[in-house]
Design goal:
alpha/beta; TIM Barrel; 41% helix; metal-binding
Length: 258
Amino acid sequence: MDSHAHLNLMPPGTPPETVLEKAREAGMVALVNVGTDRERSRESVLLATTFPDIYATVGLHPGDAHLWGGEMEREFLELAGTTRVVAIGETGLDFSYSDPPNTVQEASFAAHISLAHTVGLPLVIHCREAFDRVFSLLKDHPLPSRPGVFHCFTGGWEEAKQALDLGFLLSFSGIVTFKNAEGLRDVASRVPADRMMVETDCPYLAPVPYRGKTNEPSYLPETLRVLASCRKEDPASLAETLLDNTRRLFAMNTGHPG
């Protein structure tokens, strides 16, 4: 299960049908296509209504937080009512950006948290150089009953514990396969098995041995193998656990295995 992908951002000449077929051959049973702005959220919903093994999220990436407004919120509220939308996001804070300002990002993030609580869907959180403020805002707002996931988690164990204490899952991307990611592998080895997910974040962050190439869902087994190795688990067994976790968080029905 690829818990976080952007098929609509793949390079020209890579239609979703082709990407999905390769992923299915690699064992993937479902994929969550994540919205990052108004147009990309619409595209994600269209993909989810076209392909039975795709689900969608709707949200505004913090890098575009200045675009947030009432009209977008109303559209996301409407889209969130469709059966193929399983989460709100990706949203959060990315303080590696100087623009939009932190306060603008925080306002958008707070609105997404409220939206998720209203519609009863989990959050997909993007957090970069902003863990303290992300945790502070999450604690200041009512959360949905299934709080959500920190996607592409790259924090240390202290950040991991805080996220877990708030009820969130942690999703690991191809970054965990990188040579300099020893600390992240240590975190992945310590996270409770029922609180983990795995993702590609395609077309970004291709795992070793594909690093530097366009990422795609069929590469997910490489990340899974590294996660299993650092946890000293069987890859097939871990795949089943991560699939169950993702299905539970997003309240989706998919088959086994994958």
